[in-house]
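Give me structure tokens for this 151-residue protein.
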Amino acid sequence: MIFRNALAQAILAGRKSQTRRIARKGELLSRNGHGHPAVVVPGPNGSRIRYQVGNVYAVQNGRGLKAIGRIRLMSISSEHLQEISPIEAAMEGVEPDYMPSPWGLQPAYLPPFRRLWDRIHPKRPERWEDDPLVWALTFKLEGENDARHET
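Here you go.
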């Protein structure tokens, strides 16, 4: 999977364990023969799996670049972007804003997540305000010896 450098580094540092990807037209959430959830892209010559729970994916800073780590997909869900919770925004690896409260400064993760999303997805219909359907992918960082297969 391709991530911006700062987000790839957040994965390696253990601060990022979730990502959201635009759900493209025709993609379906299905289950494979072993019952694992998967995002499937139907095609004229059969279906292709885009993401699948249990699979290990390379963490890359760009297409065709060397992997800097590996992640194992733990869960997939479909939701509208604005359904993200503050905890999930923190799992996205963003640096929080700090907001004053009666208890002192408190971290706020949704505003920086929204800004990051709009930097990555500046055009309609993918902006925050458009509230697109997304795949919420939760993953864990894998050690080199844990990678059984990759996609």
